[in-house]
Amino acid sequence: MILKTKPADVFKERHNGPDKEQMQEMLRTIGVESLDQLIEETVPSAIRLKKPLNLPNALSETQFLKKFASIAKQNKLYKSYIGLGYNDTILPAVIQRNILENPGWYTAYTPYQAEIAQGRLEALINYQSMVMDLTGMEIANASLLDEGTAAAEAMAMFYAQRKGSRKSATRFFVSEQVLPQTIDVLKTRATPLGIELEIGDHRSANLQDETLFGAIVQYPAADGEVFDYTDFINTAHEQEILVVVAADIMSLTLLTPPGEMGADAVVGTTQRFGVPMGYGGPHAGYFATKDAFKRVIPGRIIGISVDAQGNKAYRMALQTREQHIRREKATSNICTAQVLLAVIAGMYAVYHGPRRLKYIGVNIYALTQQLESGLKALGFEQLNRQYFDTLKIAVESAEMKAAIRTEAEAAGINFHYFAKNFIGISLHQATELQDVKDILAVFAKVTGKSAAILTIDELPNETELKWNDSLIRTSDYLTHEVFNRHHSEHEILRYMKFLENKDISLVHSMIPLGSCTMKLNATAEMIPITWPEIGSIHPFAPADQVKGYKQIFEDLESWLCEVTGFDAMSLQPNSGAQGEYAGLMVIRAYHESRGEGHRNISLIPSSAHGTNPASAVMAGMKVVIVKCDERGNIDVADLRAKAEQYKNELSCLMVTYPSTHGVYEESIIEICQIIHDNGGRVYMDGANMNAQVGLTSPATIGADVCHLNLHKTFCIPHGGGGPGMGPIGVVKDLAPFLPGHAVVKTGGEEAIHAVSAAPWGSASILPISYAYIAMMGGEGLTEATKVAILNANYIKARLQQHYPVLYIGKNGRCAHEMILDCREFKKYGVEVEDIAKRLMDYGFHAPTVSFPVAGTLMIEPTESEPQEELDRFCEAMISIREEIREIEEGKADQKNNVLKHAPHTAQVALSESWDRPYSREKAVYPVSYLCDGKVWPTVSRIDSAYGDRNLICSCAPIEAYNENNNEMVAVG
Ligand SMILES: *Cc1c(COP(=O)(O)O)cnc(C)c1O
């Protein structure tokens, strides 16, 4: 007998949901003969690619992991004592396995649907409390992208909040001892806002200068010296100057917190709380401030509210969707942040608790003292009078500095080499006494002295803090129960699982979020993330130690150029919105280079994502809105009129393709032409790349710049609201302006300043996208796009008899997503929110609610969902439609019904006093598939407005919270 052979591990068959038979059936349901026919009817032929993607042949998972291991091995695992905002740390194994490597955590979405996100919301509130406690501030957000951008956000916030005598001041003082990459990011952000930076020594800063509105200092300073900023801050405050302190979170376990020195804001990174350096990221930047600024804080804040039963419930507070609501009036464009990393850092604090955390701080300090005395014994001068973890060693000559460097690198050690004759050494949690001895051996060898300077075998039991009293922290921190309970591994394991089980993620069901592309995050793609060769690399490690990363960047850049049709890429922006900002800054620099710096109008269609206008304003542009027609397409006549009206000031158009309405606009080529004819450039928001890859491309369409949300199209998981990556691709004449970096050279000849703190943004998650492309190959990627369109059109075919579908292409097809119009149900009191909440009872996360059109749902199934899952979702949606019909037909009450009361918790369903006009079974088991297993929401409908009036953003004990309520209701 003859049997066929075929590889059994073809990755695209794992990534794409439907198999061949399912596809045939789905095509029949849609009413087309073949996938190619569907694509022809959907994607306009004028924009189709003429050639298939030219990418390396697809690898299987096994082949990929083997190949990638050999690339990763080219990164050398040196011990880095470089510091400068990045320090080695120990991620507790229990957290690594159960959060960082656990899809139950990393595949979740941003917690907009709070009732099925209580786990990560609690984890984030822990994080906020931790930041508030350690910094000594009144309120903290749930993370920003990194320390550099957090500092820039503080500057922008202060600028918007200038007051009194400084109302029209435009200068911002920057201590020269702020981290170099932070200064670089501040420069980028300052220019378009019209802010001038004054960089100098804070001890001689002239704060009487009326043109200053704010200041930033670093604590401990970049070279390791610890200054007491109390006087500086007091003087600044007398002049109505606001001060932000960039502070090292670990040092705050021992040092007086900046809040107690009077700081108006404190920013930094929580990287060294268990998050691997990862060659620059991702890590959670933190941002804490005074209560007075609570309504203008950038990013997201988690707060406590109540649910319909009066139980405590968490949700995002206040400016949650700031850009969507305020658009061009938004002060910040933060959308994706660093939730997963904030969760890890917060859990690190929960696990260690205040006592162990303090020991970690003390041990680092004690080792640094040992190192100092050893170096002194070798005859070296140490310049930091007060330090936490960083020494500054004077060396007598450049030759000696070079000799130490050679010796150190031979021993596998990196220090920070100042431009002058100083060497910086920063110790960290992973440093042991033997490491201190190894460091001393390097210095000893160069001086020809004995290496046996440090003869002890264990760290002494005690160490003395040799700081001025004012710098020694006396206040408690992390006193809340959550930080004082989960210290054994069983406790923390169960706590993490307890939280995880409250949330819906991709491990439960499809998350059909339009615009957000929640596709498969394959395990094989995730594996390399926790390899030390990827995770344990300092972003400022010398080039010859990071050849693996170099190859990863080069390959990925060239592949992404192939996919987009562009000439060059920057991997620096660490979110989509940062990509927008970076791209617009590149366009700005381009116009300036041609003596056309006055071009500052950005045309943005009314349907654009809220980050677009927010980014444009950050880049110093004026936003002019372009209308959309009734089919959801850009109104070309209006666009032409505005482009011509502003032809002397036109900077760019920001356009999403396919449009946020889920349609391939036929007129896109003409649209780009109009902009070019009027001297502008075209910025494409690449969030919808999943509908382009292999079929068309931004360059083909006529765009000049485009960001790619690698956490949407290219498989980086959403992490519950970050991390993400938003690299930008550009055409040739924009390449010289791609972002540079103050420490490591990146970007073009005329590079703009840095947009992220790290040279390649969140470098350590790039392997995910690398893996995806390597395992799919050009053909697989193209097929994924086609299947994404197939899946969307299948849902459309199944649901369109039940819900009106807004905006379709001319052949009646949608792109990779579609909008269901729910506005007509308002007549019966049913809001789109009610449908979103009811879906939770069916085990689903809602589609995107009210974007880009209020009162609608935008559904994007992605290619990764098999037909069974699409059917299950359709069954839920159809069943909900029947529930709405009961209200329409008067069989159910408009206020007291199964939708209005959704979601239903087990507690509600089992309560003694069930008095609803529908059955308990209908409430919680409305369809049969739920009987096999069900994710129970743990809270009922949350009252968001209540929480905004009574803002509590830390893990206050419930009693305190109830007491506060009364008091705060009276105020609010
Ligand atoms: C997701 C999204 C963005 C923002 O990207 P982030 O990575 O969240 O900053 C911008 N535009 C559109 C259309 C999006 O869907």
Automatic annotation (TrEMBL):
Residues 13-443, 483-744 form the Glycine cleavage system P-protein N-terminal domain. It holds the Pfam family GDC-P. The keyword Kinase does not apply. SUPFAM superfamilies: PLP-dependent transferases. The modification N6-(pyridoxal phosphate)lysine is found at K712. Gene3D superfamilies: Aspartate Aminotransferase, domain 1, Type I PLP-dependent aspartate aminotransferase-like (Major domain). The keyword Oxidoreductase applies. Residues 784-904 form the Glycine dehydrogenase C-terminal domain. GO terms for molecular function: glycine dehydrogenase (decarboxylating) activity. It catalyses: N(6)-[(R)-lipoyl]-L-lysyl-[glycine-cleavage complex H protein] + glycine + H(+) = N(6)-[(R)-S(8)-aminomethyldihydrolipoyl]-L-lysyl-[glycine-cleavage complex H protein] + CO2. Its cofactor is pyridoxal 5'-phosphate. Keywords: Oxidoreductase, Pyridoxal phosphate. It is an enzyme of class 1 (oxidoreductase). Its EC number is 1.4.4.2. PANTHER family: GLYCINE DEHYDROGENASE (DECARBOXYLATING), MITOCHONDRIAL (PTHR11773:SF1), GLYCINE DEHYDROGENASE, DECARBOXYLATING (PTHR11773). The glycine cleavage system catalyzes the degradation of glycine. The P protein binds the alpha-amino group of glycine through its pyridoxal phosphate cofactor; CO(2) is released and the remaining methylamine moiety is then transferred to the lipoamide cofactor of the H protein. The glycine cleavage system is composed of four proteins: P, T, L and H. Belongs to the GcvP family. NCBIfam families: gcvP, PRK00451.1, PRK04366.1. This is Glycine dehydrogenase (decarboxylating). It comes from Pontibacter silvestris.
